[in-house]
Amino acid sequence: MSNEVLSPAEMAEADRRAIAAGPFDGIGLMRRAGQAVASLALARHPAAERFHVLCGPGNNGGDGYGAARLLHESGAAVSLWAVGAPRPGGDAALAAAECPLTPQALAGFEAGPGTVVIDALYGAGLSKPLAGDAARAVDIATERKLPVIAVDLPSGVSGDSGRVLGCAFQAEVTVTFARKKPGHLLLPGRQLCGEVVLADIGIGDAVIGELRIKTFENTPALWQAGFPRPAADTHKYRRGHVNVFSGGPSATGAARLSALAAARAGAGAVTVLSPGNAMQVNAAHLTSIMLRKVDDTATLAAILDDSRPAAFVLGPGFGVGEKARDFALAVLGDGQGRQNGVEGLVLDADGITSFEDHPASLFITAGAKGAAKLVMTPHEGEFSRLFSSLAGDDSLSKLDKARKAAARSHAVMIYKGADTVIAAPDGRAAINANAAPWLATAGSGDVLAGVVAGLLAQGMPAFEAACAAVWLHAEAGSSFGPGLIAEDLPQALVPLLRSLANST
Ligand SMILES: NC(=O)C1=CN([C@@H]2O[C@H](COP(=O)(O)OP(=O)(O)OC[C@H]3O[C@@H](n4cnc5c(N)ncnc54)[C@H](OP(=O)(O)O)[C@@H]3O)[C@@H](O)[C@H]2O)[C@@H](O)CC1
Ligand SMILES: Nc1ncnc2c1ncn2[C@@H]1O[C@H](COP(=O)(O)OP(=O)(O)O)[C@@H](O)[C@H]1O
Ligand SMILES: [K+]
């Protein structure tokens, strides 16, 4: 699977194993990396007046020396600017020795209009904030709006976290090797990379396979095989039943958005569980979605006794407090959840906030043997209410935070935002990169919660259901585009579901 995402440390390990396995040695891989960069530069900028190749002291610089040599050999005008000398005897020193151009000191870097910058200063080895001559080079490229081709990563972007250390190049395109790194997908790194092109430099799939990678880009390849399809002899309850808890009379819309989304995602039957005082307003707005009165845990217990497969959504518009906690814990089931046919609980919005001062009760119940699967869908604010120490730890990336939160809470975590991360308690994680800002509209999260529940109710495992829902939700938002409101999203899922059904 080529959607594995490797940390810089994992990439370095892949590099070592590839060299050991052959056929390429270190300089062989580096030459291929330089070749990939030079080919792309010529293809994208055939009329460039000059290529300015900026080389750092490490292997990223080594790739740059290789690219500069090939561009020069192809007849292009090339200026080579270097900072620091490569370690003698290393691959980068070999690449520098093979390059016939004389490097100038980066301190004197100048570049006019019509020229292209190739940034091979720092890549996976970025170890401190960009400063001095490197920062000045960033300023020049930015001020003059020069196209930048980044080698592996734009210098200044952390490959682990996507964060900027000091300052960073804004690349038009980034050429990376073998697999993407978290910094290509997490923000702001993703935006600074521009287009990301993956080059095959000879690190084989077998080598990557040996590393047992647990981080992925969230693409359909990750979950498509298990995407639910109704059997010919199914019936509506066998397709899965979703129950969505409604808020009070002035806050019912969010639950109905979730309910509709769950139905579109393929749940055979969907019921809004409404407080008595909101029955009328819910009834006035529901057609295919069913409605049932639930005011207390005793009534809820009767629903939970039903053994047909079901998933629950609790949180959208629900209100914060003890009732939310009692209902959520009852659904999780204290060892009874799965036996009762409860496939899972999607805890969103107010459902999450309700546990701000009582996280242990939620985490213990979710971790109990036989509990229903818990999926939580916090945005940044909700995440920090439940996981304040993780949220405030600047040494952790968003990927690290989601992963640790999932392990701590025994829940699949959907840590939302423009770079949503999905993480499972077993350590698997996926970074989502197909969302568009049109999704930042009220009620959009309610729809996502409903899609997750719709897939859970159909028996999809929680991590895969969460990944599929996030991808579908993002794709629906991106394909709809301007003018999107949350009500549009369930309908916008339809063509995507159709093409998934046709392609499996
Ligand atoms: N792995 C693979 O499969 C392949 C990898 N390849 C390439 O190797 C690259 C990784 O190479 P790398 O490990 O040598 O690290 P790299 O990014 O060159 O930086 C290290 C040097 O920079 C320095 N330094 C760092 N930050 C700094 C700063 N802000 N300001 C100043 N100095 C700073 C740092 O200093 P130190 O931390 O030691 O003090 C050290 O000297 C990778 O991105 C890819 O392009 C390909 O060749 C093909 C196969
Ligand atoms: N700038 C953005 N780009 C892409 N997706 C976004 C952006 N902002 C928000 N989203 C997505 O939109 C949804 C918003 O959910 P949420 O914050 O819970 O809103 P609401 O509570 O109004 O439903 C999430 O799925 C989130 O990932
Ligand atoms: K770089």
From TrEMBL:
Cofactor: K(+); Mg(2+)
Binding residue positions for (6S)-NADPHX: 59-63, 123-129, 152, 254, 317, 379, 446
Record: residues binding K(+): 60, 119, 155
Enzyme Commission (EC) number: 4.2.1.136, 5.1.99.6
Signal peptide: none
Domain YjeF C-terminal stretches: 219-500
Sequence positions that bind AMP: 416-420, 445
Catalytic activity of the protein: (6S)-NADPHX + ADP = AMP + phosphate + NADPH + H(+); (6R)-NADHX = (6S)-NADHX; (6R)-NADPHX = (6S)-NADPHX; (6S)-NADHX + ADP = AMP + phosphate + NADH + H(+)
A Pfam family it matches: YjeF_N
Cofactor info, note text: Binds 1 potassium ion per subunit.
InterPro entries in the cross-refs: Carbohydrate_kinase_pred_CS, CARKD, Nnr, Ribokinase-like, YjeF_N_dom, YjeF_N_dom_sf
Assigned keywords, A-Z: ATP-binding, Isomerase, Lyase, Metal-binding, Multifunctional enzyme, NAD, NADP, Nucleotide-binding, Potassium
Tagged with keyword ATP-binding: yes
Domain YjeF N-terminal: 11-209
Function comment: Catalyzes the epimerization of the S- and R-forms of NAD(P)HX, a damaged form of NAD(P)H that is a result of enzymatic or heat-dependent hydration. This is a prerequisite for the S-specific NAD(P)H-hydrate dehydratase to allow the repair of both epimers of NAD(P)HX.
Entry's family note: Belongs to the NnrE/AIBP family. In the N-terminal section; belongs to the NnrE/AIBP family.
Subunit structure, interactors included: Homotetramer.
Entry protein name: Bifunctional NAD(P)H-hydrate repair enzyme
Organism: Aquamicrobium soli
